[in-house]
Input
Amino acid sequence: MYRLCRPVKLSFYFMFFGLCVVTVVKLIIINQADTVRKRPIENDFVHPIEVGTSPTLVSTHLRTVGPTNVAMTSIQNYSSSFANLTRLNNKDLLEVILDDHLPESNWTNYKLNFSAKNELNYTFLITGEEICMKDDPYLLIIIPSEFGEVSRRDLLRKTWLRAATTNSWPKREIQNKIKFMFLFGTHSNVASEELKSLTKESILNNDIVMADFEDTYRNLTVKILVGLKWTIKYCSKVTYVLKCDMDTFINVPLMMEFLHYVQNNRSSDNFLIGLRHGYDKPPVVRDVHRWKVTETEYPLAYYPRYMYGHTYLLGRGSLDVLIAAAGSKPLIAPEDAFITGILPKLGGVLRLNAACFTMCCRQIFDCEVVWNKNVAITEIKNNERLERLWSNIAFNQCNNTISITEQT
Ligand SMILES: *[C@@H]1O[C@H](CO)[C@@H](O)[C@H](O)[C@H]1NC(C)=O
Ligand SMILES: *[C@@H]1O[C@H](CO)[C@@H](O)[C@H](O)[C@H]1NC(C)=O
Ligand SMILES: *[C@@H]1O[C@H](CO)[C@@H](O)[C@H](O)[C@H]1NC(C)=O
Ligand SMILES: *[C@@H]1O[C@H](CO)[C@@H](O)[C@H](O)[C@H]1NC(C)=O
Ligand SMILES: *[C@@H]1O[C@H](CO)[C@@H](O)[C@H](O)[C@H]1NC(C)=O
Ligand SMILES: *[C@@H]1O[C@H](CO)[C@@H](O)[C@H](O)[C@H]1NC(C)=O
Ligand SMILES: *[C@@H]1O[C@H](CO)[C@@H](O)[C@H](O)[C@H]1NC(C)=O
Ligand SMILES: *[C@@H]1O[C@H](CO)[C@@H](O)[C@H](O)[C@H]1NC(C)=O
Output
């Protein structure tokens, strides 16, 4: 259907972006006096194999590098933009993920000898049952959120999430129905205040779901599982589910092109797609509290290969399988490893790596967003940047401006 291999174009992209990356990296190094530990810069065209760092808490600020370079192009044609996704390497868009780093006998030991019973039947304090009521969406977007992120939620509703509420995108129509929900748990001390305020927000926007589990970072796994259970109950006829974070930006029409490609490419919808985590052998962290997992929860030294947690996609057929698998294993805190690695492997859900799905571990040019280089980008933590990206898309223009990601 699509021409995926364009060696000539690709080599042009390679040279162009290679040059850009090298120049910008140099400029960053020159500009940064206080040398914080930098996240590795991903080669623009090669999937990173060994990133070598654990996920870190980061904050983003902006800096303009070099002369501005405003590019004005004609109205976007997303069939042709889709060709820009293939720039990552001259490989297939979807690559089946295998676990040749994990001895079969070790996995069997975990599979047979480790068990738990998780009911996961939390009560929905705000059911959001009307979200999917009128039409069955093609795509449901689940965004875990927190009470205090009111202004970010409003900004998301005004920017890329408008694709769902208006079925359109700057200079584009969106043909498929899209719905989204912000997902919440609760805290004992502020629960009633939260509930009141979120109920108001829910009446206004019809995009809130809240359940009565304790909403902590170490319970993120529970939060996502609750979101999947909600989907099975209240949005059962959905075709695809996308989990993304509050700082993720989705190029929605491009995502639709990607989903159509996936739909044509796959005979079953029992799969999970994302950008494969850079670790070749994803290590289990035993000592750092945030990701700590004990040997009684998960005994092996490595996880199955899994996706970056900020953006991943689930076929409808995988939901029941994942929930069933989650019911019988100790729940561990690292959401990405558990939901996109362990559960699919346990339940027999195909994991697919899509290099174009999102970006990892390097600065992102505004122009890369406007030029349709990825279906999703992440770490857009700064509201002005989100606004600027959106207006760039609206006016189809961009600056040679990058965001510099630093450790806090
Ligand atoms: C969009 O681009 C594709 C591939 O380059 C081309 O076949 C198609 O005719 C274009 N459509 C429009 C409306 O320009
Ligand atoms: C399960 O654990 C027992 C006791 O530790 C061990 O003997 C057995 O080999 C394990 N089963 C598998 C499939 O590894
Ligand atoms: C969860 O479901 C089980 C059985 O289906 C029931 O016994 C239990 O009370 C339920 N828990 C909650 C909190 O509703
Ligand atoms: C996760 O939520 C459940 C249900 O509210 C709670 O019992 C548990 O303590 C929470 N766990 C963590 C680590 O916050
Ligand atoms: C699906 O895509 C893969 C490459 O990503 C390709 O090898 C395969 O032939 C495609 N299958 C179909 C049915 O299009
Ligand atoms: C597999 O199990 C063996 C024996 O228990 C252990 O020595 C080895 O470290 C395990 N490997 C992994 C990857 O967990
Ligand atoms: C594809 O990327 C190139 C730069 O590599 C850019 O000039 C072009 O506008 C992009 N095409 C679309 C349709 O986004
Ligand atoms: C590009 O940068 C210039 C100077 O900083 C600014 O005036 C302009 O609005 C920017 N354009 C975009 C599209 O961000």
